[in-house]
Design brief:
Helix content is 39%, strand content 17%. It is an alpha/beta fold and 289 residues long. The strands form two sheets. A seven-stranded mixed beta sheet has the order 4-3-2-5-6-9-7, sandwiched between helices. The protein has a two-stranded antiparallel sheet with strand order 1-8. The longest helix is centred in the C-terminal third of the chain and has 16 residues, at 213-228.
Length: 289
């Protein structure tokens, strides 16, 4: 196909009287400049393989299609998937798949459309699936090279946070990727406008996660316990969450070089790793997975 941007379904939806479905969290981006900035943020190599989550009427699809080697657009809405598939019937590199992006593994999507390859993930995603979708791809095998999503601004800020404002979400994402807010988007950039401001978030996936494979399950169990009662000190929240004594937790914190008065949001990932190792040495944390 030529390098001109293909059409989208936006006009067809208006003609048919089809509106974004609130139940699916549909808010469509239409500004070409914003769409181009999302693609630019992905820094795609020539002939990139891209999984697009939730293409909707295909506005981002149209920005991507001329610039990639293979585009796998996964759409949950059956009516949009059928219409988008027809629109791109002559584009050999575009594969429109009707399905749930949370249930389709990237390995399955890649194998169905031409085979395994390094890949990127982009999408204007429904905000209510942000956390599970990030986990789905960051914990996948194989993991993507990079992800670029539009999501709620407050959530993006939580993801890029540093101590002393860390969150469970920030730790969970930063173990696997380095996050950057590329730009902020006002509600008016979408149709219909959401009630919140949004952001374009770029996640550069690490070659190796910051937590070794053998320690990862215990690590997240400790982190979840630590953030389980954020108003308490780590000594008390970990004791309650892991079923260990405050004295044991104080000993582990001291061994990890941390204050017994420390709170979960103050720790960076290396500190959590040290703490998990010391707790694992004196408890059965790793045996309860």
């Amino acid at each position: 196909m030529d390098s001109q941007r293909p059409p989208t379904l936006l006009l067809q939806l208006k003609e048919l009287g089809l509106k974004p479905r609130k139940g699916l969290g549909q808010h469509f981006l239409t500004d070409p400049n914003i769409l181009d900035s999302i693609v630019d943020a992905a820094d795609l190599p020539p002939d990139a393989v891209v999984i697009e989550v939730g293409p909707g009427p295909g506005a981002l699809t149209a920005a991507l299609a001329p610039r990639v080697g293979r585009l796998i657009a996964v759409e949950l809405d059956a009516r949009l998937a059928e219409m988008l598939g027809a629109l791109y019937a002559d584009w050999e590199q575009v594969h429109v798949i009707h399905g749930d992006a949370l249930k389709l593994s990237p390995r399955e999507l890649l194998e169905r459309t031409g085979g395994l390859a390094p890949y990127f993930v982009l999408g204007n995603i429904p905000y209510y699936i942000t956390s599970p979708l990030l986990r789905h791809y960051l914990e996948a095998e194989p993991r993507p090279e990079r992800l670029v999503f539009t999501l709620q601004l407050d959530v993006a800020r939580r993801i890029v946070a540093r101590p002393p404002q860390m969150s469970l979400l920030a730790v969970s994402v930063q173990v696997y990727a380095e996050p950057t807010i590329v730009r902020k988007l006002p509600p008016g950039a979408f149709t219909p406008p959401p009630k919140v401001h949004s952001a374009v978030l770029r996640l550069d996936v690490r070659a190796q996660p910051l937590v070794p494979d053998a320690l990862r399950e215990a690590f997240f169990r400790v982190v979840r316990a630590g953030f389980g009662q954020k108003r308490k000190t780590l000594r008390n929240s970990l004791a309650a969450g892991l079923g260990l004594s405050p004295a044991q937790m104080a000993e582990a914190l001291q061994a990890a070089g941390l204050s017994p008065k420390a709170r979960a949001q103050e720790l960076d990932i290396p500190a959590w790793v040290r703490l998990t190792r010391f707790i694992s040495d004196q408890s059965s944390v790793t045996s309860h997975q």
